[in-house]
Write a structure and sequence with these properties.
This protein is of the alpha/beta class. The protein has 2 domains: 91 residues, Roll (Urease, subunit C, domain 1); 272 residues, Metal-dependent hydrolases (TIM Barrel), CATH 3.20.20.140. Strands 9, 10, 11, 12, 13, 14, 15 and 16 form an 8-stranded parallel β-sheet that branches. Strands 2-6-17-18-19 form a 5-stranded mixed β-sheet, with no helix packed on it. A hairpin with a 3-residue loop joins β3 and β4. The longest helix has 17 residues. The protein starts with a strand and ends with a strand. The structure holds N-(iminomethyl)-L-glutamic acid (NIG) and fe (iii) ion (FE). N-(iminomethyl)-L-glutamic acid binds next to α2. It holds the Pfam family Amidohydro_1. GO terms for molecular function: imidazolonepropionase activity; iron ion binding; zinc ion binding. It is found in: Cytoplasm. Catalyzes the hydrolytic cleavage of the carbon-nitrogen bond in imidazolone-5-propanoate to yield N-formimidoyl-L-glutamate. It is the third step in the universal histidine degradation pathway.
Length: 374
């Protein structure tokens, strides 16, 4: 593969020991050092003092759906609470949509995310909720990412059937070949802790790795379950007891915070400061979905996390890149150390500080994914 040398970088964030103001990439990072003594490469790009950083790792999204819920959002902004009940509206629209429509919607959102600097995105099923629609959701997701998550346990579509039996039986059978991860919405009105444990362990027995929607709307034992099962990530963490913070801090489970969700549901933000100060690993992700957080923008999440969750700009950048990589148990992305996958962003700004300092401004100027300009 051809090599590209980028010189004259104003601020090069690598999150590794490899430092400098120049980088050479092929499909991997080949070299990092100073512009003055950079080796030759096939092509050259002068960054003109701009900041270069790893591409964002968005470790939590729900992109396989049809329709939108703008009216539900408007009602919320007029005072209605968010309950998750609107998931049913999206399930109905998703079941009625063709494969082509679902694929088109999802790839449009992936392209939108990539224009904002996302180079890896996890995508969940969860708006099919029957064997056929969950399996096709994952088939479509797997054309867009390798980070596919089976979320048949999003809600129970009908009280009359043994839905946990279905999710751990025929649906798992049909979905496991297309998924890397298994997730459960562990929440009052969705799946309780025992059901969630049964669902995640059934998935693990099929080779899927566990992650979980935990403590989003209420305090529960979901975070404890995440740690018990060594989930890669406990997502949301909006309502945490001290014992949850302690459990996360002494585990390998990442606390993935989703500020777009609190922003769009007017819920209190998760206490990122408390988690970081306790020693927990924190990731930031969009939770992009039509109900609780219809944003694909990692820069937006960084700006909110810095402004309203008391994260420093440096912490937020790390959480949106390295944190996401850890939430996906990946060592090859989220950083620009030599050998990393060449996923990088050139900003139209001298420093990544501008991501939070200039909220809402499209600062991503160029994106390389596996070394290829997007
Ligand atoms: O992560 N909490 C569960 N699932 C999504 C929201 C789904 C929806 O409202 O459509 C979430 O917030
Ligand atoms: Fe979610």
């Amino acid at each position: 593969m051809r090599t590209l040398l980028i010189t004259n970088i104003g601020e090069l964030t690598t999150f590794s020991d490899d430092i400098g103001d120049a980088i050479i990439v092929s499909d991997r990072v080949e070299w990092v050092g100073s512009s003055a003594n950079a080796p030759a490469a096939d092509e050259r790009l002068d960054a003109g003092g701009a900041a270069v950083m790893p591409g964002f790792v968005d470790s939590h999204s729900h992109l396989i759906f049809a329709g939108d819920r703008a009216h539900e959002f408007a009602a919320r902004m007029a005072g209605e609470p968010y309950t998750g009940g609107g998931i049913r509206t999206t399930v109905a629209a998703t079941r009625a949509a063709s494969d082509e429509e679902l694929a088109r919607n999802a790839s449009r959102l992936v392209a939108e995310a990539m224009r904002q600097g996302t180079t890896t995105i996890e995508i969940k099923s969860g708006y099919g909720l029957d064997v056929e629609n969950e399996a096709r959701s994952l088939r479509i997701a797997s054309t867009l990412t390798t980070e596919t998550t089976y979320l048949g346990a999003h809600i129970k579509p009908s009280p009359d059937v043994d839905y946990v039996g279905l999710v751990t039986g025929a649906m798992l059978e049909a979905c496991a070949p297309h998924a890397k991860w298994i997730d459960v919405f562990c929440e009052r009105g969705a799946f309780d802790v025992d059901e969630s444990r049964a669902i995640l362990t059934a998935g693990m027995a099929k080779g899927l790795q566990p992650r979980i929607h935990a403590n989003q709307l209420t305090m529960s034992k979901a975070v404890q379950l995440a740690v018990e099962l060594d989930c890669a990530s406990a997502d949301h963490c909006t309502h945490l007891a001290d014992e949850d913070v302690d459990a996360l801090a002494s585990s390998h489970t990442v606390a993935t915070l989703l500020p777009g969700c609190e922003f769009s549901t007017r819920a209190p933000y998760p206490d990122a400061r408390r988690l970081i100060d306790a020693g927990a690993t924190v990731a930031l992700a969009t939770d992009c979905n039509p109900g609780s957080s219809f944003t694909s923008s990692m820069p937006f999440c960084i700006a909110v996390a810095v402004r309203d969750m008391r994260m420093t700009p440096a912490e937020a950048l790390w959480s949106a890149t390295m944190g996401g990589a850890k939430a996906l148990r990946r060592n090859d992305i989220g950083h620009l150390g030599v050998g990393a996958q060449a996923d990088l962003v050139i900003l139209g700004a001298p420093s990544s500080l501008h991501l939070a300092y200039r909220p809402g401004v499209p600062l991503v100027k160029k994106v390389l994914r596996i070394g290829v300009p997007q």
